[in-house]
Amino acid sequence: MKRNPDSVLNVTGRTIYLDDAPEPADMLHGAIVLSPCAHGRFSGIDPAGALSMDPSVRVLVAADIPGQNELGTAVMDEPLLAEGEWHYRGQVVAFVLASNRSLARKAAAVVRLLGVEELPVVTDPRVAFARGDIILSPRTQRRGDPVAAYGDCAVVVEGRVESGGQEHVYLETQGAIALPDDAGGVRLVSGTQSPSGVQNIVARILGLPMNLVEVETRRLGGAFGGKEDQATGWAALAALGAFRTGKPVKIYLNRRDDMVATGKRHPYSSDFKIGLSADGMILAFEADYYQNAGAATDLSPAILPRTLFHAAGAYHIPNVRATGTMCRTNLVPFTAFRGFGGPQGLFVIECAIEKAARALDMDPVEIQRKNLLSDGDTFHYGMPVEDARAKETLESCLAKADYVGLRARIRAFNAEHRDLKRGAAVYPLCFGISFTKIMMNQGGALVHVYNDGSIGVSTGAIEMGQGVGRKIALIAAASLGASIKSVRIESTRTTTVANTMATAASSGADINAMAAKVACDEIRKRLDAIAAARLVVPATKLELRDGRVWRLEGGRHIDAGLSFEELVTAAYDQRIDLSAHGFYATPGLHFDMTTEKGSPFLYHVYGCAVVSATVDVLRGSYRFDDAIIVHDIANSIDPLVDMGQIEGAFAQGLGWAALEELKFDDDGRLISDTLSTYKLPDAHFMPRMQVEFFDKPNPKAVANSKAVGEPPLMYGIAGYFAVLDALKAARPDAPPFYDLPMTPEKVLRFLTDGAQA
Ligand code: LUZ
Ligand code: MOS
Fold it and tell me: What is the domain count for the chain?
């Protein structure tokens, strides 16, 4: 199998990221002055100390913004630079420029804030909710009548669930370079998932039309949602600097500033109630999700519905009510993170099932299995379930894991060991694919075939290590009939493909490869006609493939003696257009926000994981033993890329579920603000992994594939319950706790106190 050529550049250190590009001699470097506490007022700043350090130093504040001081999209509540007040610790108050980076940082450190007055701080979403401090209105999705249905239930259990935030820890921190241009605009190189989004907001902030702001993104060293909206502020600061000084400006955050000043996955606090029949059929489910939105709206209104859509997980539940509220707190504005509110909702339903299984004295897998979605069901938001793969992937995963044998081995192990206890858990996945905001499901492409036969493909997709460029190249080559070697994926630019959406929602390849295919198919039609004329053979008897023209004769392919390059030269000689624009808008999506019903997704991704763990009962430490995953990949466009996405997403999900603890103190200060205090998954943390592709084709997406970026993150949820299962073996009568991540500290507290939630 061929490897993605990008991976060779990455491992040999030859990839050029934002901070690797050569710098113009007169470039200024930016550094940020951050608010020192979570909520406060100030009367101004005193830049004198900074300015006296060097003549190159400039200090920019809100008053220097020529346009609107506003980063918001859904709600206008996020200034680029704080004016008079700040609402979280790490909010940018001033932007300092100097001739080199270390000077800029030193100068930023001596900018003084004047008249500072600290104000009360709220960090808990339930406290914010109780005070009525919410963003927009709560949303409720419902079907049937859960309250009435509890009357028919043999067991009804309730509980509370906490899930922590998560830092993205993209390897490349946030940054941007801005170059002033002679038309009075700026050209930006931005570390963003959304160049058009940056273009739009920078134009607003500088008071320019969008055509005077050009944004280019070559690639990102990771993003995971952290650069969907939150790359914009850094680009806007660089643009402001270039606009004010007339010089190129670069900003590239150090790790701690990045961790303190940028948004992360939303922490949630939730309540559930679930009712089941005596044999484990789920009859009713209710949940209230208190989303900790942080101090500004950001993407929260798009993230909340994804939680509600995933309230019932991979299960058919006849009576559902799911209510979500965005609660405004004095923490950094929380943002997109792989899964986008899905994981938080999916964790709650699994907690409910775990608790119900205790009440019914069943293995949770019995409940999971009985209630899985199948064709003919309807999601609680009204979308018909089609081509469901929940049962097949679960059964195949249980078989692969020898689940019955695994349970028996765990029982035997636990009977023999007092100080070590083992556990296991199953997680069935169902994740909806498409942006929850229907407008966002569109993309464009521009394809040029150069007259030597080489090909340049531009789309709105951002390569961030996920291999979207590789997938687009494979689709473009196949569609043009060219060799993959002749395809280059161009840098993403607002001047080549305009009005694009963030590369997000797992749909980067679905949307952009499809747009590229539309353009390539158009050029291909023109080339086919030239080939037919030149070879004097009907086009139906010819096939252009892998860079050569083949004659089809009696089911065989015979080389027609014409290469892709020769064909292109012939087309060029005949003045045929060798370029085409493609556009794709995901078909069939609709959703009514007033009834909360519709079909918001093109399709769903299914799968299943079985994870096992061993807990050291004396120390509270544990290790994950094995993870068996059967993942609904459909037709894989590039199996190595997809395998990397599945393993990487699972590691990131397991990190969220068990290890990564985003800790704020009561004053709203992030305590885990470095990589020494914020622990990431590594090779020792990860279990042995066996991943199997469930490869039934998906006619709804390009090349019968399925989106892969986010769904496998959810398998990490199985890790939480594997440890909880081991804890049940250690202390069968202690009440369980649903407070993710499952850190060793929490495990030890449970084992010593018996309970904590
Ligand atoms: N971004 C977004 C996303 O704007 N809308 C979405 O539905 C979404 N889903 C997942 C990840 N990012
Ligand atoms: Mo997103 S969470 O940028 O797919």
Answer: 3
